[in-house]
Amino acid sequence: MILFKNCRFVKELTEGFVQEMGDVLVDDKDTIAEIAEPGAIAAPEGCRIVDAEGGTLLPGFFDMHVHLTMDSLDFLPYVARRPEDHWAETYSYAREMLKQGYTTVRDAGGAYNVVKGVRDAQRKGYINVPDILSSGQALTPTEMGNETFGPMYSVCDGPMEVRKAARHQLELGNDVIKYMVTGAYLNEGGLPGQQIVTEDELREAVRIADMKDTHVMGHAHSAEGIKTAIRCGLRTVEHGSFIDEEAIRMLKESDRTFLVPTAAIGLACLDEDANNLSEGMVDTSKKYEQIEKDCVNRAYRAGLKLGFGSDIDKENFVAHPGMEFYARHEWFDFEYVDILKQATINSAEILGMDDRKGTICVGKNAELVVIDGKPDIDINDMKQMPRYVYFHGELIEN
Q1: CA-to-CA separations, 139 to 197, 260, 334, in angstroms, rounded
Q2: Residue 396 has pLDDT above 90, yes or no
Q3: Are 24 and 34 in contact (CB under 8 A)?
Q4: What is the dihedral of CA 29, 13, 313, 295, to 10 degrees?
Q5: What is the topology classification, in CATH, of domain 61-350?
Q6: How far apart (Å, rounded) are the C-alpha atoms in residues 119 and 114?
Q7: How far apart are the C-alpha atoms of 350 and 63, rounded to whole Å?
Q8: Are strands 236-239 and 32-36 parallel, antiparallel or unpaired?
Q9: Rounded CA gap, 27 and 13, in Å?
């Protein structure tokens, strides 16, 4: 058991307790057992006590769009790396994510099914990393730039090949299906504003996912690609860079499909100190920068429930703690509390995990993060490692 004392709460992320300060007791099943005013909980015998004074207690974070096998934005070594080395990099990245407070991550495509292997090791209790939803290889049609990421992709054309490819990723034990609906910024020669799949191909992937009680996440930048994804019933539209008013309206009317913007990768691709991106990739990022900002900000101001995803590589993730949090204010223009909600309760609801994750609430999982400062008042307080992260019985002190 563990008792967190003198915690400051964010009211939007705390259920069943209205005071700003309090103590939180975690039972021996890693469940939140009690929340009460400071000093009101008597520590049981043998209980560990953690003083969170000066810090804000938050529920564990979600990243709904991460590539755990991606250690940097230098893609040549990625394509050449041996499978066993991908496993080591994946574990290392996942562990770093936990240290920064991420307790649930959804992988958006990786090589050699190693993400599923790391996930299995966590579920068996061999390692402590975030809860992982794996997608295996991302499905993509025959398309210019596929070689950029090589083993991350499974190439399939036509509904029957899509059916086989989707079933294969699930046969391998993966949790969800990832599909490339439009071109990509970082694929050499790819056109992000161009839809590259047909509707019947995409519907086939959704059909297979529905049969297996799971979902499809779709990489989609262009407005037409986004609208196709919504019509076909994808669970999430990733990026949404060029979303238009019609697509925003369609999302507002849908209870099935949600938008997951990715801000950190935008900042990373324009970092003057970065030397891993080709000139063409940087030029593409600069070309569409303002368009993406304007479009996604418009979707946010329309009141859409947005998920939290970063699409960032391990090198940038480690170098810039809290990058997706502050990027959503610097790259986009989101309000601080909304950013925190996107990283927690919104993403939990989108993934159907809000019964046990996403808020601090008696009966929910004890996935807890202590941040120095008040990030709901100044999101820049996230530009530091958390003071504490508690997950699966482990207290990480940074």
Answers
A1: 10, 18, 31
A2: yes
A3: yes
A4: 150
A5: TIM Barrel (3.20.20)
A6: 9
A7: 12
A8: unpaired
A9: 20
Of residues 219, 263, 223, the one with CA closest to residue 243: 223
The alpha carbon of residue 203 and the mean position of all alpha carbons in its chain are separated, in whole angstroms, by: 24
Q: Which residue in the block uniquely carries the two structure tokens 């709901």?
A: 376
Q: How far apart are CA 170 and CA 385, in angstroms?
A: 35
Question: Could you tell me if 331 and 45 are in contact, meaning their C-beta atoms sit under 8 angstroms apart?
Answer: no
User: How many other C-beta atoms lie within 10 A of the C-beta of residue 278?
Assistant: 14
3 state DSSP class of 250:
helix
SS3 8: strand
379 DSSP 8-state letter? G
Please state the domain extents for the chain: 2-58+359-397, 61-350
Residue with the bigger pLDDT between 50 and 72: it is: 50
The 3-class secondary structure across 16-27, one letter per residue, is CCCCCEEEEEEC
Place of tokens 């860079």: 241
Specify which residues 177 forms β-bridges with: 216
C-alpha 360/C-alpha 13 separation (Å) is 6
Q: Is 364 left (phi over 0), alpha (psi -120 to 50) or beta?
A: beta
Distance CA(306)–CA(325), nearest Å, equals 13
CATH 3.40.1360.10 fits 2-58+359-397, yes or no: no
State mean pLDDT over 361-376.
98
Give the model confidence (pLDDT) of 22-38 as tens digits: 999 999 999 999 999 99
